[in-house]
Structure formats: C-alpha cells, structure tokens
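Weekly structure sync, notes
Attendees: PL (lead), two postdocs, one rotation student
Agenda item 3: pending single-chain targets
PL asked that the sequence for the first pending target be pasted directly into the notes so everyone works from the same version. It is reproduced below exactly as submitted, 110 residues in total.
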Amino acid sequence: MTQLSLMQTSAEDRSLLHLNYGLMSAFPLLLPLLLGLVLNLSLTKGCSGPLGRSHLRWQRHSMLGLALLLPLSYNLPHDASALALMSLTLMWFVMRIVKGWVSLIDGIAP
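Predicted structure, written out during the meeting:
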C-alpha cells in the first residue's frame, strides 16, 4: 500500500488544490474549512509552480477574509446591517470558490 506524502506531489499535480477547493465549499461546517486552511498553509512551502502559488494565495485570502468578516457581522448592533454584511460575505466567499475552482480547471491563475 502506498501512502501519499505532501512532499511527493509534483508542482504540476493539482489534486490537492482541488481537494482544498472542495473543503472550502463545505464552509457552513467549520471543521472542513479549518482543515482546508491547515492544508493550504502546509502546501505553501512545497509548491514551486506559479499557478499553484497563486491558487494557494487565493484560497488563503478567501478563508481569512471569511474568518474576519463573519465575526464582524455577528458584532454589528443592528440586525438588518448584520444580516446584510453576512449575506454579502457569504456571496463573496462563494464567488471566490467558484472563480478559483473554474480557473484551476482551465489552468489559469484566478
């Protein structure tokens, strides 16, 4: 039985990037999103291709933006403004997942 090591994957192997986008798409659940962030941070050092680096940066900025904007929306004093900011944040995050994943399939940087 062979084991997959993060260091054994080549720079052209995009399967871990696809896995990370899949984990990001399960954003209503906290655990897959945190696992995706840990995977992203562990892949940052080993990725040498410009396409992989740009997608890792895109994913990392998306997850950190979600982590910063959602607690901010919970702390707003008015329910309407909190709901509006939360809705805009979630739409922004979904748009970034779709745009990043489609551009990864096309082989271009997001």
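Discussion points:
- Confidence is low (pLDDT under 50) at residues 7-11.
- Residues 79-106 form the longest helix (28 residues).
Action: rotation student to compare against the earlier draft before next sync.
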